[in-house]
């Protein structure tokens, strides 16, 4: 995903040769050195490559012909050659290195012809770099070390001068070639020291043109040197002079502006070729109306004279421009220096108010709208301007003559940490050698960072917090803290305060404040000994009050309190919470809803979130634990929480990422990365509607992850990677740190460079295509929009909303939505947006199902006029409308739906139509299973249906129709994989139907191959106890070499211990050959059902086959099935946190009270408590969000009053627990994007009892009314005493009821003895 970005490639060196720009291969290249790095840019926001050296570099030069680059270090020169023809693959690699022995001073370099490199130091040397290693072809020792040395563009002359030297030496080459190279020289004298030189650029290097040299001296005069005699073009003489100080005269208000008087002058030479191209660009840029303006006509007149332009600036922002006409003897015309313009405001002030003036060196080239200017200010910044010449050289007052495209700045050393303000509007970057900088970001969508201040403490900074939008910074050192005023370019130390605390400081926290507007801040530091100290900071209301001395207010720091925290000794880390999605203030109360400020992590992986408040009288702090999450991840290496209760955790190997919801203490996401991908940073942000975004930092890339809607039907992930930022192509340095700013931009610090990436998207990458974002009709060009689409509320016609409505039993509402959607699609137009609610009133979604059904019936039968309806506006959903709607869905791309979602929607329409057709015979649970079955059929990869689907079918009263539909789907050829996939043998309740279906599967397995192998169906027929049928099948398998022996073996009596032992031996032998299914069949032959079930469960890893064999062989009341459910299924359900499997198992065990309780209560508390067996360790999957399915509340509401046992289960659930379960389910609906269903749930839920009558039993005994509760029908299913056998699970078996007599066949007169 390509994103707009802003670069801060590093702080440029304050040297003459620190910046260089050329046009090579029709590409503009800007290079500058910063610290140990060389930055190569193609544009203001496009970094081509960063090259790091092992030493600091001071200068750079680029060869316009070969594209080679030379960088200068102390005693060394590095030569880089370009590799790769295409722009994307273009890189520079080290070709050779030139060592300058015996001298550690930085050198100056310049490229000549034929890849010759001039190196200036205490001597001038010429090196040929055509081959590696370079060859020295000429050298000359000098009395004064070279400060500047440059080739002319035709490489025939060299101009050199030393530092503080008033003589410029012109070296003339006497020979051509690399053999016996000779130079002679002459002097160009100046009255003061020379500070800069510039050779005039020709239109092309092939052009024969006079070499013209511009020199600038400390006397403030620009001198132009050119050849005088046509027969000796190498002899330069003074041609013209421009007094720079007099070129900008003082204005009439000179006395009033003495405070800003500046004697410094900055000169920019615009060569004639650059000026001509810039004028041509300006001509192409102006409109027809602007061509007649006087300003434009004046520019055309100046351009006709083909001048060289000299632009002079002063420190007050004023400017003047001068033209030099006919420079050089070949023109043979009179030289003319004429004034082009003078302006009081250039709009290009390189020195801000209050800053010390610094030297500025200019580089100009044509591009953009006309002229591009690089102003290298020697305070560590490069200003990049774009100017249209008719506006830039306009003599009339203009507020803006040039547009500032960007400022290239940054650090000189590797960036280590980034810290932001609470609101993300400013940040602090800390680099190597205690180099700190404060950056601020302008309002709106402008992502450019501007350097606000630099901080240079004398002692090492361990931690820092940034206050008041970056106006103040507090740094933590060994034994003291310092408060800095960062409103000035160089921060000023305001106050230093000593402290004493035991242990090493681990964390520095800025506490959220309870009142807005007051500049009162509180900072807390925590040490490794769990000791803490808090400081209070008082700041002025406005930073100007400090600068101007208003009210004599001075910021102060005072120690507020010291404290000790009662935490575990095995604590690993204390981390501040990323403040996302909130303002800078909070309420003054202290409770579990307060915003979290810190997260602690111990060695066992226990996460604890903390909030803290300062007491009203500032006498101390009050800490409160808001949440606890036991992750089970030992010794995590990284953790980061945010203020909307999300915590990211990285394991000890830094290869696995988990994301947790601390409010619900559940796992939302888990991903394992390759071993080479080491996670080293985590950063949080959120959208304006509080949807979390996580940046996962690796050494050379950052992966952005966002929340996805919970998807329980498809078991989809709750998080996904949607964007990747890879910096390896532009810098080899690993990423140091990253953070988010308030407007959604991401700042990455790598080496000494800062990369600021906007949230705006230019094109989708592979990750976005995997999420199928490219299939959306509406373009998503903002990551906030992408996240809102992936995780925001869904329209009512979205498949997820319709699926959940069907599960909630809202079939009438679903039909209403589909009827409205059909109507809207028939009149659909691309320019008219589709309403998310389809113009259905909100009250309709919140109404009860029976009320909706009544309203629809009255609407359809509302009298003579009410029954009249137009043919095209049918109010009833039927098969005809369903076919029409499916046809529209295949033709019209619906907004906010991806292609797969639209296919899913069509499947739901067909499913609803099918249920509608069988409405009188399919109940709600059958419809729920049918929906899951149809959705499962759309999956590409084979997988079993969920236990949720089996639970719906298990409680359905229309299982005959469901089994017919499943068989029809298999085309009457159902085999065991299809049976396992549909979960048939888990949800079928009728014993006869189970045997019949299992026999069908046995027959289909036998006939599935051409040979008709009896081995394929042996397990099935032996489970059905139909050994004779199997013998008959073997009798027909004459082709099988095992026929005779197997047929003879099966003919024996296996009730005899001898043959039973033989069958067991054969089973074990088959297990040794890994023929597990056949081995299970021989165990059944030996009447060892338990062993057969264990083989299916353990060896074949087929839980459903084990259940099916047990149910078929001995029925639902057999001891093996009970043992399987109790000892294997229930522990597995606890281990995986699967409540659907647990409630089914309890129901099969005749413990329906536990089947109800396990839907709400923790599974471990129901199955492990009170047993002697060791508890099974809970897998991390058991903590996954998928364990808390919102459909559980639907099943709970359905079965809680179904039988007497379920009512007893409800009695043990407190109203508070039920309320928490309800609110948690509502939050799950919200995370699914189904906000309306969450509102409907909490609005229409009915509690069986309230907290006031919690002590009253739901089941009351009356001799007259045996068991009665309201008017509901409750089945009496208390187990008889004979069922009170111990299962090993508390409550299973020993029911506490009286004796219940079995039903009698004839009527008996009731006894009246009790009345006497």
TrEMBL record:
Gene Ontology BP, a term: vacuolar acidification
Keywords per UniProt: WD repeat
InterPro entries given in the database record: DmX-like/RAVE_component, Rav1p_C, WD40/YVTN_repeat-like_dom_sf, WD40_repeat_dom_sf, WD40_rpt
Q: Does the keyword Transmembrane feature in the UniProt annotation?
A: no
* Organism the protein comes from: Tuber borchii
Bilayer-crossing residues are none
| PROSITE patterns to which the protein is assigned, alphabetical | WD_REPEATS_2
Query: Gene3D superfamilies, per this entry?
Result: YVTN repeat-like/Quinoprotein amine dehydrogenase
What is the name attached to this protein's record? RAVE protein 1 C terminal-domain-containing protein
Specify whether Nucleus is a keyword of the entry: no
């Amino acid at each position: 995903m390509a994103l707009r970005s802003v670069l801060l490639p590093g702080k440029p060196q304050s040297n003459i040769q620190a910046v260089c720009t050329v046009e090579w291969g029709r590409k503009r290249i800007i290079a500058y050195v910063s610290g140990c790095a060389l930055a190569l840019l193609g544009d203001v926001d496009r970094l081509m490559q960063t090259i790091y050296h092992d030493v600091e570099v001071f200068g750079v030069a680029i060869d316009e012909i070969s594209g080679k680059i030379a960088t200068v270090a102390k005693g060394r020169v590095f030569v880089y050659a370009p590799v790769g023809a295409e722009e994307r693959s273009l890189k520079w690699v080290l070709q050779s290195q030139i060592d300058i022995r015996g001298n550690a001073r930085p050198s100056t370099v310049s490229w000549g012809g034929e890849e010759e490199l001039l190196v200036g130091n205490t001597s001038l040397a010429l090196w040929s770099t055509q081959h590696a290693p370079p060859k020295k072809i000429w050298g000359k020792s000098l009395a004064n070390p070279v400060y500047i040395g440059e080739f002319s563009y035709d490489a025939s002359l060299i101009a050199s001068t030393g530092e503080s030297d008033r003589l410029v030496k012109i070296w003339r080459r006497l020979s051509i070639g690399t053999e016996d190279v000779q130079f002679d020289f002459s002097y160009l004298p100046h009255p003061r020291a020379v500070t800069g030189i510039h050779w005039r650029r020709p239109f092309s290097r092939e052009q024969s043109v006079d070499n013209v040299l511009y020199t600038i001296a400390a006397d403030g005069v620009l001198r132009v040197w050119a050849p005088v005699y046509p027969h000796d073009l190498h002899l330069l003489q003074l041609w013209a002079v421009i007094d720079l100080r007099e070129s900008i005269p003082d204005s009439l208000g000179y006395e009033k502006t003495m405070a800003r008087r500046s004697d410094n002058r900055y000169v920019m030479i615009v060569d004639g070729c650059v000026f001509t191209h810039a004028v041509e660009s300006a001509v192409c840029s102006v409109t027809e109306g602007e061509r007649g303006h006087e300003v434009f006509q004046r520019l055309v007149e100046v351009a006709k004279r083909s001048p060289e332009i000299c632009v002079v600036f002063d420190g007050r922002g004023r400017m003047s421009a001068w033209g030099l006409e006919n420079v050089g003897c070949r023109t043979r015309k009179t030289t003319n220096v004429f004034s082009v313009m003078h302006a009081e405001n250039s709009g290009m002030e390189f020195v801000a108010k209050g800053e010390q003036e610094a030297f500025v060196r200019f580089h100009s080239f044509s591009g953009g709208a006309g002229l591009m200017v690089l102003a290298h200010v020697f305070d560590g910044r490069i200003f990049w301007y774009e100017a249209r010449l008719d506006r830039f050289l306009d003599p009339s007052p203009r507020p803006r003559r040039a547009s500032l495209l960007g400022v290239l700045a940054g650090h000189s050393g590797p960036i280590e940490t980034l810290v932001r303000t609470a609101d993300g509007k400013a940040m602090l970057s800390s680099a190597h050698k205690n180099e700190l900088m404060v950056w601020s970001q302008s309002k709106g969508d402008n992502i450019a960072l501007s350097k606000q201040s630099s901080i240079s403490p004398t002692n090492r900074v361990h931690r820092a917090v940034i206050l008041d939008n970056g106006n103040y910074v507090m740094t933590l050192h060994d034994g003291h803290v310092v408060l800095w005023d960062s409103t000035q370019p160089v921060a000023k130390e305001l106050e230093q305060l000593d402290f004493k605390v035991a242990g090493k400081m681990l964390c520095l926290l800025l506490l959220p404040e309870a009142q807005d507007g007051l500049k009162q801040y509180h900072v807390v530091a925590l040490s490794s000994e769990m000791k803490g100290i808090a400081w209070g900071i008082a700041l002025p209301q406005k930073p100007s009050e400090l600068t101007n001395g208003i009210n004599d207010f001075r910021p102060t720091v005072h120690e507020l309190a010291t404290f000790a925290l009662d935490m575990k000794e095995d604590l690993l880390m204390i981390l501040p919470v990323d403040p996302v999605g909130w303002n800078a203030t909070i309420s003054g109360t202290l409770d579990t809803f307060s915003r979290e400020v810190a997260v602690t992590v111990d060695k066992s992986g226990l996460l604890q979130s903390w909030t803290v408040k300062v007491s009203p009288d500032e006498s101390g702090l009050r800490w409160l634990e808001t949440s606890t999450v036991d992750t089970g991840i030992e010794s995590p290496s990284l953790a980061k929480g945010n203020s909307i209760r999300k915590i990211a955790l990285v394991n000890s190997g830094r290869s696995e990422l988990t994301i947790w919801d601390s409010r619900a203490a559940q796992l939302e996401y888990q991903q394992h990365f390759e071993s080479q991908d080491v996670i080293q940073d985590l950063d949080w942000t959120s959208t304006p509607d509080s949807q979390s975004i996580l940046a996962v930092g690796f050494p050379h890339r950052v992966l952005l992850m966002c929340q996805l809607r919970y998807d329980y039907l498809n078991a989809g992930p709750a998080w996904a990677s949607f964007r990747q930022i890879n910096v390896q192509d532009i810098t080899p340095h690993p990423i140091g740190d990253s953070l988010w700013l308030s407007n959604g931009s991401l700042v990455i610090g790598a080496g000494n460079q800062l990369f600021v990436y906007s949230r705006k998207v230019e094109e989708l990458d592979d990750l976005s295509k995997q999420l199928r974002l490219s299939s959306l009709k509406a373009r998503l060009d903002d990551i906030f929009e992408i996240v809102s689409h992936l995780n925001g509320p869904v329209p009512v016609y979205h498949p997820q909303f319709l699926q959940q409505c069907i599960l909630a039993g809202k079939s009438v509402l679903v039909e209403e939505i589909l009827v409205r959607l059909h109507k809207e699609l028939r009149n659909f137009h691309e320019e008219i947006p589709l309403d998310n609610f389809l113009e259905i009133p909100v009250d309709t979604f919140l109404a009860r199902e029976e009320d909706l059904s009544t309203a629809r019936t009255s609407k359809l039968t509302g009298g003579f006029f009410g029954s009249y309806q137009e043919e095209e506006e049918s109010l009833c959903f039927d098969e005809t409308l369903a076919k029409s709607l499916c046809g529209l869905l295949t033709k019209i791309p619906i907004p906010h739906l991806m292609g797969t979602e639209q296919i899913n929607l069509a499947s739901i329409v067909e499913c609803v139509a099918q249920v509608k057709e069988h409405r009188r015979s399919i109940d709600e649970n059958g419809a729920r299973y049918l929906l899951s079955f149809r959705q499962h059929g759309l999956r590409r990869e084979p997988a079993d249906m969920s236990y949720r689907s089996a639970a719906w079918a298990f409680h359905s009263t229309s299982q005959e129709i469901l089994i017919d539909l499943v068989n029809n789907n298999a085309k009457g050829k159902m085999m065991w994989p299809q049976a396992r996939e549909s979960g048939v043998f888990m949800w079928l309740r009728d014993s006869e139907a189970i045997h019949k279906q299992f026999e069908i599967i046995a027959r289909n397995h036998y006939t599935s191959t051409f040979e008709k192998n009896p081995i394929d169906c042996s397990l099935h027929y032996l489970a059905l106890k139909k050994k004779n049928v199997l013998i008959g099948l073997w009798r027909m398998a004459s082709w099988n070499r095992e026929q005779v022996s197997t047929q003879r073996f099966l003919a024996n009596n296996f009730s005899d211990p001898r043959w039973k032992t033989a069958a067991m031996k054969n089973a074990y032998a088959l297990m040794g050959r890994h023929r597990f299914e056949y081995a299970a069949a021989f165990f059944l032959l030996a009447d060892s059902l338990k062993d057969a079930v264990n083989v299916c469960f353990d060896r074949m890893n087929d839980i459903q086959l084990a259940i099916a064999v047990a149910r078929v062989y001995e029925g639902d009341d057999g001891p093996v099935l009970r043992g399987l459910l109790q000892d294997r299924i229930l522990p597995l359900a606890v281990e995986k946190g699967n409540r659907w499997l647990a409630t089914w198992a309890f129901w099969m065990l005749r413990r329906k009270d536990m089947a109800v309780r396990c839907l709400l209560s923790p599974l471990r508390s129901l199955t492990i408590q009170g047993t002697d067996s060791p508890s099974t360790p809970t897998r991390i999957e058991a903590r996954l969000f998928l364990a808390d399915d919102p459909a559980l509340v639907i099943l709970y509401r359905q079965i809680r009053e179904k039988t007497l046992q379920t009512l007893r289960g409800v009695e043990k659930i407190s109203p508070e627990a039920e309320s928490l379960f309800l609110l948690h389910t509502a939050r799950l609906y919200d995370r699914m994007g189904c906000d309306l269903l969450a509102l409907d749930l909490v609005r229409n839920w009915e509690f069986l009892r309230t907290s006031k009558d919690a002590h009253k039993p739901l089941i009351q005994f009356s001799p007259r009314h045996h068991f009665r509760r309201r008017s509901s029908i409750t089945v009496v299913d208390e187990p008889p005493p004979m069922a009170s056998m111990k299962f090993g699970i508390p409550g299973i078996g020993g029911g506490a009821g009286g004796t219940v007599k079995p039903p009698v066949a004839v009527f008996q007169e009731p006894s009246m003895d009790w009345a006497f």
